[in-house]
Amino acid sequence: HSIEQTEMMELPASGSLNPGKLHLVSKLKNPSGSCSVDVGAVWWERAGSKEPCIITACEDVVSLWKPLDTWQWEKVYTWHFTEVPVLQIVPVPDVHNLVCVALGSLEIREIRALMCPCDGEHGKQALLKSGDIKAVLGLTKGRLVSSSGTVCDQQVGVMSFAEDGGSKEEQLLMPPEETVLTFAEVQGMQEALLGTTIVNSIVIWNLKTGQLLKKMHIDDSYQASTCHRAYSEMGLLFVVLSHPHAKMNESFGSPVFQLMVINPKTTFNMGVLLYCLPPGQAGRFLEGDVKDHVAAAVLTSGTIAFWDLLLGHCTALLPPVSDQNWSFVKWSGTDSHLLAGRKDGDIFIYRYS
Amino acid sequence: CSKADLGPVSLTWFEELSSEAPP
To answer: Which of A191, A211, A269 minimises the CB distance to B23?
Structure first.
């Protein structure tokens, strides 16, 4: 077992916008030096108490880190993947001792469940799904939704896990006649699920009955949009989308996220707000995550940018540390921290206030 | 654009769409 020392670092001040919002609290140094692909958080229960742990993924290894005192971390378990590389970590909310991973080269070929080790035992893993998998997302109440197959034989299914990560069952949802690329839960509506499709539609399912409730075409200005957050208010559906292919606009800059409003009854929709980079900042959306009213995105420039979705503007910029570009960013599902990773495998944990 | 452009809204849209959609 290796123990990594916590290192308090000064935030890079030059070029930072409101750096006071970000406080580096801890760092996990990658001892292997191999290419890091993702990070996530999981609750690990041992001897009756639950601890918020970090999961890191390199192409061939997934590691579980438990917290020690004063923000130090101890690597307690690793799962090895020699045949198919790891693509992403898929946290499953409301269950403990379990995290899922998506494996594949360019597209997802397998989804596996990793069971965190109980006292004196080894961590186990189980194959949940294999094939041509297009999208996967962990949902509240210990559920996992995925879409697979081609548009002709597309299968959309939801698996359910027990709170301790045990037993699972799968329910099929009615597939739309378009390939589903991403999923998003509708906040506060446990039975509602959204999907975005390859031809820029948003679909809504009833998770309880498996019904496809609506398919709505949205603006064609931005292709391959990903839905990061959805909520319903006053009979309208609000969605936060990211636009990887959005181009710089002379009047308002480079749009990275967009808030759209949809009337699910009529399918009429319109853009409400564009979340753009501040003047002088270049780059497009590479990867990002939204939690409550804060959105974070890694840009093609290697900087991480933050937006307050209520205020409507960029609130902080985190430039590359030691000339190493950021490659991924995630909000922790176990607390309010931000997990930021670099290609060299080092993970930085920030408090955003 | 305004809210009126979105057409009539319903607070119970999810239940209504569920009762209208094929099972």
So the answer is: A211
Q: Which residues pair with B20 in a beta bridge?
A: none
Interface confidence (ipTM) of the complex: 0.94
Inspect the interface and report whether the beta carbons of A206 and B16 lie closer than 8 Å. no
Radius of gyration of chain A (CA): 20
- Model confidence over A2-32: pLDDT tens digits? 334 333 333 344 445 565 588 888 999 876 6
A221-253 confidence digits (pLDDT tens): 777 789 999 999 999 999 999 987 766 666 667
Q: In what order do the strands lie in the sheet with A189-197?
A: A212-217, A201-206, A189-197, A180-187, A226-233, A236-242, A255-262, A269-276
Report the C-alpha gap between A335 and A295 in whole angstroms: 16
| Smallest CA–CA distance from A235 into chain B, residue | B11
Residue type, A211: Q
Q: Do B18 and A264 touch (CB under 8 A)?
A: no
Q: Assess A17–B contact: CB distance below 8 Å, yes or no.
A: no
**CA A31 vs CA A76, A146, A250, A273: distances in Å:** 14, 33, 44, 42
CA distances from B19 to A206, A211, A267, A295 (A): 11, 10, 17, 35
**Distance of alpha carbon A68 from alpha carbon A45, whole angstroms:** 15
Count of residues for chain A? 353
